[in-house]
Design brief:
Layout: H1 3-9, H2 18-21, E1 25-30, E2 35-40, H3 48-63, H4 66-69, H5 82-100, H6 103-106, H7 114-121, H8 125-136, H9 145-173, E3 187-188, E4 195-196, H10 220-232, E5 243-245, E6 255-257, H11 310-324, E7 333-334, H12 338-347, H13 351-358, E8 360-364, E9 370-374, H14 377-385, H15 387-397, E10 405-409
Parallel strand pairs: 9-10
Antiparallel strand pairs: 1-2, 3-4, 5-6, 7-8, 8-9
Helix pairs in contact: 3-5, 7-8, 7-9, 9-12, 12-13, 12-15, 13-14
């Protein structure tokens, strides 16, 4: 509870002597009831991120047994030596870092730096820097089952809501010292409300309009009202194709598609410029300036001109929209971690499977059978051929194994 709440509940002028000791929080163990009470300072500490970290830090002392193993911690840590107290604080700090920004999950996300870590996890800049440096020491550590479970639960959400997570983090720290260096990491387009994560972009990569609104003629009050309206309007997370980065390519945006997003051909190499089957370009370019663009761009971030991928993204969104709007049987439950299955197929370099699952949706029926909905007959055939690979991913972390898999084309329904 907060210090202000504790004053009323505990009938104390300074609960746990928090202000007297100058502490951010204190935890007391009520021995005869096996009860723990945490009080944090809500008067001198108003940053919600700092408050969250402090509470989790105190929970670390409880769950790590510090208040049991070290009796002096029950009411006052003054009975501990400097070394003992330091060790307990380090352990509690590591606990808080792993709860709020688990290394087992983020070490396998190479595109997330210390700034992104702070915004997504809601931790301080100092904590984010320390955890990011710790992540670098784990690059060659073998994966664990715990790591896999975290990816199973959260990887799909991170992929689909990445820009939104960054934007929410920026809003959370808005106005605080140093916030401006984070603003460009995710900006919401004032026209289409899509989240743009290219810091140097002048134009929205999803609609081609300028990212900075034209406030010419606005009063200060009207300008702030318009900014608030844009910020409060629900944002969009447009679909982004799976890509790989060219090795030893130091140019800007060295990305190419993992498979053809139009015809699903997976016979692709880093130097393949066009799909061998349908002719679709596999490297995104600005149609006006003929320069390389990020794979997510429908429009050039520098000039706002259409990108080569604009047309195929329209096709992709139409297919995914059909899947999203499919009215499933009332007894079918949508598979909650299907995005993880799709991403894992790509991470395991099973490109044939990743290509057909990109446009797919999955359900589980009353008999716990897995039912997969795809967009065409070719995808049905390939999914059936690769059913063992699908079960290898799905059954690893699902609560119950699925006895049967059914595959259907949305065109045949």
């Amino acid at each position: 509870m907060s210090w202000s709440e504790a004053r009323t509940i505990l009938h104390s002028e300074d609960p746990f002597h928090l202000h007297q000791l100058g502490a951010e929080a204190r935890t007391v163990r009520v021995r005869d009831r096996d009860l723990y009470m945490i009080v944090y300072d809500d008067v001198n500490m108003t940053n919600p991120d700092r408050i969250l970290w402090t509470i989790v830090h105190e929970l670390g002392h409880v769950l790590l047994g510090h208040l049991v193993d070290f009796e002096a911690t029950a009411l006052s840590r003054g009975g501990l030596s400097r070394t003992e107290y330091s060790v307990l604080e380090i352990e509690a700090h590591r606990f808080a870092a792993e709860v709020l920004a688990p290394a087992a999950f983020f070490r396998s996300q190479p595109y997330i730096g210390n700034k992104e870590l702070r915004l997504i996890c809601g931790i301080s800049e100092e904590a984010a820097n320390k955890q990011y440096n710790y992540l670098q020491t784990l690059q060659y550590a073998p994966p664990t089952s715990y790591e896999g479970k975290l990816e199973h639960n959260f990887l799909g959400s991170l992929y689909k809501r990445y820009g939104e997570m960054l934007y929410d983090g920026i809003r959370r720290i808005w106005g605080r010292p140093g916030y401006k260096k984070y603003v460009s990491l995710s900006r919401k387009c004032p026209h289409c409300y899509a989240f743009n994560t290219i810091p140097e972009a002048t134009y929205c990569i999803f609609c081609g309009e300028r990212l900075e609104p034209d406030y010419d003629g606005y009063s200060v009050r009207d300008m702030e009202a318009e900014r608030t309206r844009i910020a409060d309007t629900p944002g969009r997370n447009p679909v982004i194709f799976y890509v790989r980065r060219k090795k030893h390519d130091h140019g800007k945006y060295p990305e190419y598609q993992l498979f053809c997003s139009r015809c699903l051909n997976d016979d692709i190499t880093p130097d393949t410029k066009y799909c061998r089957i349908c002719g679709q370009p596999l490297h995104n370019m600005c149609r006006k300036e003929h320069k390389r663009l990020p794979a997510a761009a429908r429009f050039c971030p520098d000039c706002g001109s259409p990108a080569v991928f604009q047309e195929v993204y329209a096709i992709a969104e139409s297919r995914l929209d059909r899947l999203a709007k499919y009215k499933d049987n009332e007894r079918w439950i949508e598979h909650p971690y299907w995005e993880y299955v799709k991403l894992t197929a790509a991470q395991r370099d099973n490109v044939a499977l990743a290509s057909v699952l990109f446009y797919s949706k999955a359900f589980v029926n009353d008999d716990n059978n897995l039912l997969i909905l795809v967009t065409n007959a070719k995808a049905v055939r390939i999914v059936k051929q690769l059913n063992d690979a699908i079960f290898d991913i799905v059954d690893q972390y699902d609560a119950q194994q699925h006895p049967v898999m059914g595959v259907y084309s949305i065109n045949a329904i």
